[in-house]
Amino acid sequence: MTAPVRGLRPAASIGRKRDGHELTREELAAFVGGYLDGSVSEGQMGAMLMAGVLRGFSEAEAFALTEILAQSGEQLDLSGLAGPTVDKHSTGGVADGTTLLVAPLLACCGATVVKLSGRGLGHTGGTLDKLEAIPGMNVALDHAEMLRVAGEVGCVVAGQTERLVPADRALYALRDVTGTVESPALIASSVMSKKLAAGAGTIVLDVKAGDGAFMAGEDEAGALAELCVSIGERAGRRCSALVTAMDEPLGHAVGGALEVAEVVELLSAPPSGRLAEVALALATEALVSARSMSPSEAHEALVGCWTSGDALDRLGHMIEEQGGDARVCADPRAVLPAAPVAREVPAPAGGAVTSAPARAIGEVAADLGSGRAHKGDRVDPAVGVEMRVEVGDVVAAGAAIAVVHARDEEAAERAASRLAHLVTLGEEAPVRRCPVRRHVRSGRAGNGPPSR
């Protein structure tokens, strides 16, 4: 990591940022390095972060901070892997199993995916939690094992090691308790430092917007996407992003085992639905960037891998190489853990579904045990919610709008009651919108999904 600069006074730098001045890379390095070695106090680091949140960080400051964080620990060397290397990141959402679709799809099309994923917190689901619902699955791989699996399979999904970007973990923990999480520059530097340290030549971002996302507005999400893409480009990576909707759950399943089952069942049939649409859009974008394919060529190749069953086979191969029970790809409901209680939620009246709020539905599933309120909480992989409807569907009174999977009848009843009130019905079905709202590449944004 860049060594702290001697002679810089923390209080003076805090004052400069408070007054709206741009900090130099040396000042930022001094602050981050000093915080890690104890020469900058927690109070001083918190004051600097708050000054930056209130006054704003420039793009140059965001880029410098990203590099400083990325260089604070080990970095993966993917140069020995065949094919273009690809990484994909999502800013988090509900029923978002895109990683488990995108990784094997890209591997089938000649790319190598090394994906370092995280765990869920609050209403959002984590890819590692989903994978660990598979009996025997190991996501705690060291760097050598990650590279081995990636080389043999073409894709690997594992957890970030302690040696990768330690400064980001330290800063994020402080941001969480000082009310300084909501800064585009700090979010972008946190996301992109991990992507740069992970070593892939192509980075594709899925920036969520809506009720269940960290960024509620599409313009706000678009600005974050543009900043992340700019940072990636300045670091010499091929980087692009999609802004996608998270007003309702992306897929139908919310909860570890249920989401894995949904992914397997999706890959066992021709692609359909919002989850498949976003996954194909992300994978298409990755191939366009990594292999210089046209969007139509990339999309056609990916659909071919999907419908032939090759992507499902590749997912099973990855699971097997990471110690998991690959039979999950043949009969997921028989292999994955199941909750003892499954209760249907009937529609209280007939009508068109006008709202199915992602955040609240994610919170219902989390309260059943599928998520965690605090970082160390244990997740129950068997429980959760399966939605039977989405916005725009027309349902009859008494028809099932969801199924609750719970540990006991009391928990199932509470969740069912909440869901019955969350899904709103009206007389007229709203117009269905494409979940891909914006495409950001090379610093230029465009509305709508990538052309095919």
Brief summary of the model shown:
The protein is an alpha/beta fold. Helix content is 46%, strand content 16%.
Structure description:
The protein is α/β, with parallel strands linked by helices and 452 residues long. Helix 5 links the parallel strand 1 and strand 2. Helix 4 crosses helix 10, helix 5 crosses helix 14 and helix 9 packs across helix 10. The strands form 3 sheets. Strands 3-2-1-4-5-13-14 form a 7-stranded mixed sheet, with helices on both faces. The protein has a 4-stranded antiparallel sheet with strand order 6-9-11-7, sandwiched between helices. Helices cover 46% and strands 16% of the residues. The N terminus and C terminus are likely disordered. It has 17 helices and 14 strands.
What is the SS-derived class? alpha/beta
How would you sum up the global shape?
Answer: globular
Q: Termini separation (Å)? A: 42 Å
Note the beta-strand portion. 15-25%
The residue ranges in which pLDDT falls below 50 over 5 or more consecutive positions are 1-5, 443-452
Radius of gyration: 22 Å
Features:
452 residues, alpha/beta, seven-stranded mixed sheet, four-stranded antiparallel sheet, disordered N terminus, disordered C terminus
List the helices and strands and how they pair.
Elements: H1 10-18, H2 25-37, H3 42-55, H4 59-70, E1 85-90, H5 98-108, E2 112-117, H6 127-131, H7 143-153, E3 155-159, H8 166-178, H9 184-198, E4 202-209, H10 218-234, E5 238-245, E6 253-254, H11 256-267, H12 274-291, H13 295-308, H14 310-321, H15 332-335, E7 341-346, E8 351-355, H16 358-370, E9 384-387, E10 394-395, E11 400-406, H17 409-422, E12 424-426, E13 436-441, E14 444-447
Parallel strand pairs: 1-2, 1-4, 2-3, 4-5
Antiparallel strand pairs: 5-13, 6-9, 7-11, 8-10, 8-12, 9-11, 13-14
Helix pairs in contact: 1-3, 2-4, 4-9, 4-10, 5-12, 5-14, 9-10, 12-13, 16-17
